[in-house]
Amino acid sequence: MPMPRPLSGFSWRKAARWALFAVAGFLAFSLLWVGLYRFVDPPGTPLMLIRAASQGLPAERDWVPLDTLPAGLVEAVIGAEDSRFCEHGGVDWDAVGAALEANEEGRRLRGGSTISQQTAKNAFLWPDRTWARKGLELWFTTLVETFWPKRRIMEVYLNVIEWAPGVYGAEAASRHWFGKPAAQLTRREAALLAAIIPSPLRWRANPPGPYVAGRARVLEQRMGIVRRDGLADCV
Questions:
Q1: How far apart are CA 183 and CA 155, in angstroms?
Q2: What percent of the chain has pLDDT over 70?
Q3: Which of 19, 71, 97, 150 has the CB geometry, 3.0–4.6 Å to 234, for a possible disulfide?
């Protein structure tokens, strides 16, 4: 029986060369993209486009410099999401290990994402839980931590994360939930905003439900620890 002939014109060497070009192009593009956002505020995010296309939700967002945001909001999000933000290089491996251990033991599922990882995901990627997306998240987190100072990471984070359906960034969130600019947030209001970050489509900052109200009370205590121990000094 004759052996099948190879596809006409197919060359493994040519395919490998094109694959190498594709990888090099992606690396160069991602480096330029991250480098650009070091100085230029992101005009939008993939999540904003997805929400607009799938749900018809136009993005509510007003970019504000980090210097105009209250210190309490920074302390609140560090206390809520990433107490080692100033120490790690993008991934908190201790938190990842604790999350994996909790998940394996059957306790409530928890994540180990840092503020740097959440910034990379929101600014550059789309929301899903595939290994491919997680791998890209790790790559962009590495770039962000390499080329951005911690202050820039926090500034982008507070201006791009979702705080209600179609509401992005601290300024829009403050006006949406409390009817005033973010610069006027009280520490309690900052704690309430930080409390709903894990589930902004279901939880309300004002009026808060019992769970969010209790979570915010805990965060107010953590905010004092963040300030006392200098956990936000890099910002």
A1: 14
A2: 88
A3: 150
Cα–Cα nearest to 118, from 45, 64, 51, 63: 45
Amino acid letter for position 233: D
State the amino acid at position 11 in one-letter form. Answer: S
Question: Which position has the token pair 């929101």?
Answer: 122
Contacts of residue 63, defined as CB under 8 A and 6 or more positions apart, other chains included, come to: 41, 159, 169, 171
Task: Give the span between the Cα atoms of 165 and 59, in whole angstroms.
Answer: 9
Beta bridge partners of 164: 167
Provide the CB-side half-sphere exposure for 121 (13 A, CA): 19
Q: Is 170 helix (H, G, I), strand (E, B) or coil?
A: helix
Q: Which residues touch 184 (CB under 8 Å, ≥6 apart)?
A: 70, 174
Over residues 180-201, the pLDDT tens digits come to 999 999 999 999 999 999 999 9
**Closest listed residue to residue 195, CA positions, set 215, 210, 222:** 215
Task: For 74-122, give the DSSP string.
Answer: HHHHHHHH-TTTTTSSS--HHHHHHHHHHHHTTS-------HHHHHHHH
Phi, psi of 163 (to 5 degrees): -120, -5
What residues pair up with 17 in beta bridges, in sequence order? none
Give the number of other CB atoms < 10 A from CB of residue 38.
13
Strand, helix or coil at 201?
Answer: coil
pLDDT tens digits along 101-152: 555 555 444 457 999 999 999 999 998 888 999 999 999 999 999 999 999 9
